[in-house]
Prior knowledge:
Blueprint: E1 8-9, E2 19-20, H1 32-35, H2 37-67, H3 74-105, H4 123-140, H5 146-158, H6 161-169, E3 191-193, E4 210-215, H7 225-234, E5 236-240, E6 260-264, E7 276-278, E8 283-285, E9 292-294, E10 300-303, E11 312-313, E12 315-317, E13 323-325
Antiparallel strand pairs: 1-2, 3-4, 4-5, 5-6, 6-11, 7-8, 8-9, 9-10, 12-13
Helix pairs in contact: 2-3, 2-5, 2-6
Amino acid sequence: MSESKTDVTVHPDAEHPEKFSDPGLPSHRPRQADIDPKADKRAERQVVVLFLLSVIGTIVALWAYFAVRPDGTTGGVRTSTLTLGIAIFFALAGIGIGAIHWAKTLMNDHEMVEERHQARTTGETREIAVKKLQDGIKDSGIGRRGVLKGVVVSALALFPLTIAVPLISSVGGDWDVSKFRDTLWKKGTRLTYDPTGRPIKASDVTLGSAVHVIPEVTEEYRTTDEWITEKAKAVVLMVRLDPRDLNPPAKQAGWDYDGIVAFSKICTHVGCPVALYEQQTHHLLCPCHQSTFDVAHGAKVVFGPAKRPLPQLPITVDADGYLVARDGFDEPVGPSYWERLK
């Protein structure tokens, strides 16, 4: 790299220099592919391989979407998601790394300098810009590299299928939103600890505690695939406050039992589990997007993107002192959807 002196123009009273002379550009260092035809061909083959990797990744992603379907179990969902995710990664990475390697090894790397000019351009300037774009296309060498051109076009054309096919295939699927209107909670259903299923007595719930709750079901039902889906809709977070701190909306008055209140654990924003309880403020926090609900005031939203309170489960005790539901939720649980205004 050549050295050059820098001239500085300074006013007598100026604290900083006003103008520096252009130091120029360092001498150009040719790449191996610029001087060795074998290296140039090798670089081209490497780029072709990377874009072929993208094509293969797209094909595997499409295969995985149809062949490796979730079977309702945790392991099945994990396998399907992992296979599809890895395939899409290679489909995207092949395009990205291939484009970078192409630019670094095959395209012109000579330094270019353009003087600053006004932002407003003339017709002549636009013509020059179009000419430079055309020169860039010519310089990329894609016109004379047939294999490279074919694999690039194939990768870019096929990759959108990894997104389009799942979207198109979902048309005509199960859009029955009424499934979210009802849960396993019914009048008289006992509240039990999650995950053991042991019934909860009101005397077991201490002041300030937060308990993760599921409805009582038979042991046989807990082994079915249906239980996984129904449990996901019915999970509840129960908290015990001083009854004097409760100030619920009028329609929810009396839905607690001696300061014990129970709310759906599913955030009304996008359905994340609301599981962080702050005892001093009586706030429930959703860890995903920080929606915050005030338990003392009917779980109303006090912060964050959620638009409606958490649905409350009205509770009481049975003859044996166990906490039971007075009824199911009075509204659908979970995030809002197109049938809801909020």
